Amino acid sequence: MQRLRHHPTLLIDLMGGALLVLVAALFLSMTAFAGDGTVSQIDTMEQSIAEARRSLALVRANMDESRARLKLNQQRLANQGRLPNAAPVDEYFRFLSSLATQHHLTVRNQIPLGERQYPGLSETPFAYEVTGSWPDLIRFLEAIENAPYWADVGYLTIHPLAEQPGIRRALLTVCLFSVARPQETSAPGKG
Hints:
Order of helices and strands: HHHHEEEHEE
Radius of gyration: 33 Å
Mean pLDDT: 79
Strand content: 15-25%
Number of helices: 5
CATH architecture of the largest domain: 2-Layer Sandwich
CATH topology of the largest domain: Alpha-Beta Plaits
Low-confidence stretches: 184-191
Shape: elongated
Structural class: alpha+beta
Largest sheet: 5 strands, antiparallel
Distance between the termini: 68 Å
Number of domains: 2
CATH class of the largest domain: Alpha Beta
């Protein structure tokens, strides 16, 4: 019985087979002990068998659908949290611009700072400058930290703008992370 729990298809097949044996046994017992009403009972039994087969087919179809859904969810789970193969720079900065707009900030500058390679890790830093009120800047920074990207704020300074009371200027270094690309090596004696 322990093996059957790990093989739901086998269990369903056995249940369907047992149901068919039961129906057949009922059929035989009715024919053996019944008189003239046997033809209508045979029709009823055939309908019951057909219905049992349709039910079994439906159970199998549902099981196949559940297996496909399980496989898809297992693949999603396996990929969740995995470093991307390449930093999604354009997508990320569209996201940051959207966040800045949502938090009533003005984007002043965005400058690439040059990729850095570490063993197994690639870091793509950018200088990013925004202006806005103190509460809006805090909500913006919190949204960056909660974003579903492999990114981090590596450096941050916030200064008041003398020409605009209540407005602050934030300078950030935003770092995107991805899997390091293999280093190209040149053959000895070349290059």
